[in-house]
Amino acid sequence: MHPLSSTPFSSAPEIPLHLKWWAEARYGWSLHFGLYSVAARGEWVRSAERLTDEQYQTYFDRFNPESGWAEAWAEAAVRGGAKYAVLTTKHHDGFCLFDSDLTEFKVPNTPAGRDLVREWVNAVRAAGLRVGLYYSLVDWHHPDCPAKGDRQHPLRDHPGAAERDKACVWERYVDYMHGQLRELCSNYGRIDSLVVDFSYGPYKGDMWGAEKIQRELRALQPDLIFNDRWDNESRKRVPRPVHAGDYEQTEQNLPRRCLTDDAGAPMPWEGWFTLTNSWSHSTTDHHWKRAETIIRALVNCVSKHGNLLLNVSPDARGRIPARALEITRETGEWLELNGGSIYGAGGAPLPKPEWGRWTQKGDTLYAHILEPVIGNISLEGLRSKVSNARLLSCNAEVILADFWNPGVQTFDDPEDIFMNFAKPTASTYPLPDSRDTVVAMECVKTLF
Predict the structure, then answer these.
(1) pTM of the full predicted structure?
(2) Distance (Å, rounded) from C-alpha 2 to C-alpha 319?
(3) What pLDDT digit, counting tens, does each position of 39-52 carry?
(4) pLDDT tens column, 254-273
(5) Where are the domains of the chain?
(6) Which residues have CB under 8 Å from 32's CB, separation 6+?
(7) Averaged pLDDT of the chain
(8) pLDDT tens by residue, 211-270
(9) How far is it, in rounded angstroms, from Cα 38 to Cα 15?
(10) 290 close to 327: Cβ distance less than 8 angstroms
(11) Is the CB of residue 365 less than 8 Å from the CB of residue 358?
């Protein structure tokens, strides 16, 4: 830690070989897509409104995305700068976007009449993105999942729930769930990641048969990576359970620093959040995050050795809303110019500066200037350690200099150096990019 800073910085987590592509990608997209897209009131609509199978059937009977939806979505993801993509193959409602042999509650039996996972995997793979599949461990449709007293099952308060539950056989459901996961890892070629969701109460770890199914899936897909939701924060435990997954996944919030286990060792992690406040298409949610917010959140994650997974969901026809395309296109344009500070980069061994954040890749240090500064921009502790400062977006020179009036006024520290975008360096200049101005500089000495 730098002597002037009271905020520790985190070292980079160890990244196993099969996880390296993910750690270098840094930015991915996910989409929630299913029967709830027809309701357009959120993916939890069946639970929130206590809908029975019969009431939910109306969305099944109307689900029919347009052809070409997957190619359009993949194209938008690439244009938006994403490197990997995750699709909800089955959400908590139990509806499958794939042609499972184990259920009739699947997309080929809707008016769509076809396997949407296959369309999506083919489109995403053709676009050059890594393929991720989401699968909910929870299933509100399956008859062997208990309802009475459950905190979220749609039939939890139904008069017939207790009688229904008498026929439930949990082991039968686990066999079903394992069978569907094997289908997903057998029928669509190479799958790069599996995102499962979610554990709560007694439903975690051994209840899911997590260790057994992970072994089976890795036999089918040797390089498959898993998220952490087979259990509750199991990656933090020391020793770590076998079924803990490869990385920690936060939801709708970003941690203050790189996540660590109970022994203080840094962990690979990913922040997952939505473009609005909804995970699936909603006709009433217009709380769009700005491109600037997405850019800064991505920088925040990478500065802490983390990834960002942004959820961008289509409507029931499979169309991405125009506002979503506008926001993500702007994000992609920023990444086109500044992606060198994100892709393959991580945090730097420096305290967080008052004007923004640091990232680093090899011997190149990136200053992400998020806040305007009066006069010189202070680079804490970097005297004689950096050179060749330039705007990453256009390679224009950024001036490294001493404090403008040495010998008369001196601050902050003898080991600090300063930079600015023009001369005289004591003047104040507007940031070239108010969303995030990235200055790249070469490290000529060890930073810490």
Answers:
(1) 0.96
(2) 50
(3) 999 999 999 999 99
(4) 999 999 999 999 999 999 99
(5) 17-341, 356-443
(6) 43, 88, 91, 279, 280, 311, 313
(7) 95
(8) 999 999 999 999 999 999 999 999 999 999 999 999 999 999 999 999 999 999 999 999
(9) 40
(10) yes
(11) yes
For helices 322-338 and 291-303, the axis angle rounded to 10 degrees is: 50
pLDDT in tens, 269-307: 999 999 999 999 999 999 999 999 999 999 999 999 999
Cis peptide before 239 (omega within 30 of 0): yes
Collect all residues with Cβ–Cβ distance below 8 Å to 280 and sequence separation of at least 6: 32, 33, 34, 36, 37, 40, 42, 43, 313
Q: Which residues pair with 401 in a beta bridge?
A: 418
Q: 130: which strand partners?
A: 84
- Residue in 282, 278, 279, 288 with CA at minimum distance from that of residue 315: 282
Q: From 180, 246, 234, 178, select the one nearest 204 (Cα to Cα).
A: 234
DSSP conformational letter for 351 = P
Tens digit of pLDDT for each residue in 57-94? 999 999 999 999 999 999 999 999 999 999 999 999 99
Exposure b/e, 193-213, CB count within 10 A at least 16 = b: bbbbbbbeeebbbeebbbeeb
Q: Residue 299: name the closest of 289, 291, 307 by CA.
A: 307
Is omega for the bond preceding 436 within 30 degrees of 0, making it cis? no
The length of the chain, given as a count of residues? 448
CA angle 368–298–8, rounded 5-degree value: 65
Q: Which CATH code for domain 356-443?
A: 2.60.40.1180
Q: State the CATH architecture for 17-341.
A: Alpha-Beta Barrel (3.20)
Residue 370 in contact with residue 436, Cβ under 8 Å?
Answer: yes
pLDDT of residue 167 exceeding 80, the answer is yes
Q: How far are the Cα atoms of 14, 86, 344, 437 from residue 394, in angstroms, in the given order?
A: 33, 32, 20, 11
CA atoms of 247 and 38, how far apart (whole Å): 33
